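Input structure tokens:
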């Protein structure tokens, strides 16, 4: 046997021995290091296999997760991003993004970073949307129901039942959910409008807008207050006395 062949044979035997010792003793192998890697999807898991985060292209982007079970989300099929999953295997926020020029020559783009209440939908969202020649950037803060009282999956099922009711029964059923605090309610919305104004909308616990602070693109500031029916009650601007 040549010296080269003998060396390669010995190296292979040593590598096999190292692998065997690692498997038998439970020794931790050194982490792999890469300068660059191309990948379609990364699943981040706990040592016991619990999925905690997914980073994915749009072709492999997951559905939503509820207590370890994945459900279909066809509305995400055109977006890439990252999904956060809590200790029990339930989705609790994520980041999605897309951007392209449509057949009409206009940009269709969006980025959304969200944080969910436990077993519920988003309570904080950072959103940028660009469509049809207009662009808006917004911070949204919502109230969400206690996920142990009615989680987002149970609410979706209940809303599917309600949509099949006649108009009067549907209205009453939705009001019942609202009275019990089981529907989401927007509380704060801060950002830019399609008309290029900057605005801050403050709403009550029912999601009813009560105050709007706005500055127009031309620089005109105003404060508008609304009654409990959503009707303008008072406006303060530079022309007010």
């Amino acid at each position: 046997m040549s010296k080269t062949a003998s060396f390669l044979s010995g190296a292979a035997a040593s590598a096999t021995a190292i692998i065997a010792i690692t498997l038998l003793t439970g020794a931790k192998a050194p982490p792999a290091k890469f300068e660059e890697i191309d990948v379609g999807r990364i699943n981040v898991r706990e040592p016991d296999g619990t999925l905690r985060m997914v980073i994915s292209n749009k072709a492999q982007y997951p559905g939503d997760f509820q207590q370890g079970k994945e459900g279909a989300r066809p509305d995400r099929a055109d977006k890439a991003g990252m999904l956060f999953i809590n200790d029990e295997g339930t989705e609790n926020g994520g980041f999605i993004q897309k951007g392209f020029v449509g057949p009409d020559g206009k940009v269709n783009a969006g980025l959304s970073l969200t944080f969910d209440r436990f077993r519920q939908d988003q309570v904080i969202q950072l959103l940028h949307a660009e469509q049809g020649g207009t662009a808006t950037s917004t911070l949204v803060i919502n109230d969400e129901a206690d996920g142990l009282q009615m989680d987002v999956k149970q609410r979706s099922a209940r809303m599917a039942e309600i949509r099949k009711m006649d108009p009067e029964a549907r209205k009453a059923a939705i009001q019942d959910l609202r009275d019990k605090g089981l529907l989401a309610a927007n509380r704060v919305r801060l950002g830019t409008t399609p008309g290029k104004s900057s605005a801050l909308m403050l709403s009550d616990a029912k999601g009813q807008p009560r105050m709007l602070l706005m500055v127009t693109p031309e620089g005109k500031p105003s404060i508008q207050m609304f009654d409990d029916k959503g009707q303008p009650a008072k406006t303060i601007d530079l022309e007010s006395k």
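The first strand starts at residue 41 and ends at 45. The helical segments are 3-25, 152-163, 167-179.
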